[in-house]
Amino acid sequence: MDKLINYLKYVGIFLIIELALTFITSLLNLLGLNSGITSIILFVSNIILFFILSFYNAFKKQRKGLIEGIILGGILIVLMFLIKIILFTGGIGIPTLIYYLILFVTSILAGMFGVNKKADNK
Predict the structure, then answer these.
(1) Which residues span the domain enclosing 61?
(2) Per the structure, how many domains does the chain have?
(3) Is residue 22 part of a domain?
């Protein structure tokens, strides 16, 4: 039960930050910024967000960073995939799959880095 609550906490953090990022990039788009640039901003922000969440999750658990990265990354990607299917009419193409794969690999690497990071004892 504690594991489920832990993962739900990260999902909640992800959803809040993702909504804020989407709102900010939408505002930038309305202010005249090119939609290609806002897409890049959102992509880089998602990579950073996946890295931070997976890193912190693995760092706190200090065990099996690869597995923690796979689980958390998988949960977040399935959530993003479901939101895309439900809210948007566009199909799932190769660019979307590559996008999800990059986020998934980022999550795995962050989990491995997080579990290997030693806490500073000062």
Answers:
(1) 2-116
(2) 1
(3) yes
Answer whether residue 121 is part of any domain: no
Could you tell me which residues come within 8 angstroms of residue 114 by beta carbon, excluding any fewer than 6 positions away? 54, 55, 56, 57, 58, 59, 65, 68, 69
1 Cβ contact partners less than 8 Å away, ≥ 6 residues apart: none
The answer to the question of residue 122 being in a domain is no
Q: Check residue 105 and give its pLDDT.
A: 94
Specify if 112 maps to a domain. yes
Express each pLDDT in 72-108 by its tens digit.
Answer: 899 999 998 888 888 877 777 898 889 999 999 999 9
114-117: long-range contacts (C-beta < 8 A, 24 or more apart)?
Answer: 114/54, 114/55, 114/56, 114/57, 114/58, 114/59, 114/65, 114/68, 114/69, 115/58, 115/59, 115/61, 115/62, 115/63, 115/64, 115/65, 115/68, 116/65, 117/55, 117/59
Cβ neighbour number for residue 1 with a 10 Å cutoff = 5
User: Which of 19-23, 48-52, 63-67 has the least mean pLDDT?
Assistant: 63-67
